[in-house]
Amino acid sequence: MKALIIAAGEGKRIRDVxxxxxxxLTPLLGLSLIERIILSAKSAGINxxxxxxxxxxxxxxxxxxxxxxxxxxxxxxxxxxxxxxNGLSVLSAKNKLSENFVLLMSDHLFDPDVLxxxxxxxxxxxxxxxxxxRKKRDxxxxxxATKVRIRDDIIVDIGKNLxxxxxxxxxxxxxxxxxxxxxxESLKRGDDxxxxxxxxxxxxxxxxxxxxxxxxxxxxxxxxxxxxxxxHLLDSLIKPTDGAVSKYINRKISIPISKILVNTRxxxxxxxxxxxxxxxxxxxxxxxxxxxxxxxxGLLAQISSIIxxxxxxxxxxxxxxxxxxxxxxxxxxxxxxxxxxxxxxxxYWISHPDITIWIWGFFSVVGSLLNSYTAIKYDQVIKERKxxxxxxxxxxxxIIMLGGVLNQVFVTLVVLAIITNxxxxxxxxxxxxxx
Length: 435
What we know:
CATH class of the largest domain: Alpha Beta
Shape: elongated
Distance between the termini: 40 Å
Radius of gyration: 27 Å
């Protein structure tokens, strides 16, 4: 299935942000708006795109190329009448689309799950499905929004000037080629907008709708709406599996750092390696066994934990998530955990040559490594119910930081040994009841 993206408009209302760039190239957290649309659609399983160009279309073509850098294929169509209604932009792509296709706006951001759900829908006698929002969201400009009136499972009217309406047009469509006939009929009536063509289908009871529900979408038309979109993307970086330290401390620091790093060429994997190197330095300083080094080592362990959150944040913001990246990060974290604890054991042992430190250290390492291992299955099961507390790496590194600053290495290892192994046993018991 192909996706048609309308990217012909000028976007005067957001000029104070986009400057000399065409609106689709307005930057947002390391990517332009249209790149976010393409990558969102790609993550929903769409790899072939037709993009309609108009205002400064050469800049968009230069930026996106043939799509190979994004792992997709892009064709272009030029709408020389881009100053007129957006229905003409859709019509200009008529010869490029011969089967059902998805229609997207270059400035309407959305949760990729919306498109995944829409792709599963069947037209079943209809000629199109429009995604609508029946919620009253504070950030929606109702005066500028396109409204729809529905009856049963179909749209009966659409337009910006409806006094009574049941939802807002989200700018996301699943359409058959009948939309082109409808647009041509709308043109004969003197209406060159996309809504005009949809209205023609609505009059024939050929336009269905899909409610977006609680999923996110936004029409980025102004500087204010761009800020709303940015806030949503940053807030979405907090994961359901985050522990208390990660959620309330680490993310408060890592997200602002990631917000800066997404505008650079630094890759998520490079950040993972940086976090690992900081952990190595922490382990090295712990091995000296002197308080000043130990305190600094503890702080570095916590800094490493914070930076460790940035790699995933950057990957999600820039659609650079990969199985290899997640696996490599996990492997480096396990090495880092073991080496930091080894540094703590050795540093304490050289000044306190007591064999018990190695015993507690052994159980700390085993407990910590198994704590991460058991979390994989545990998180899959526990997400089915409301989580009250999660003991994970963020808390372990925070405990190590406290132990270092307070110069209580032995106590810290005892605490880690007890808590991590207790948590592992608890998870085994919980999961056994689920089988």
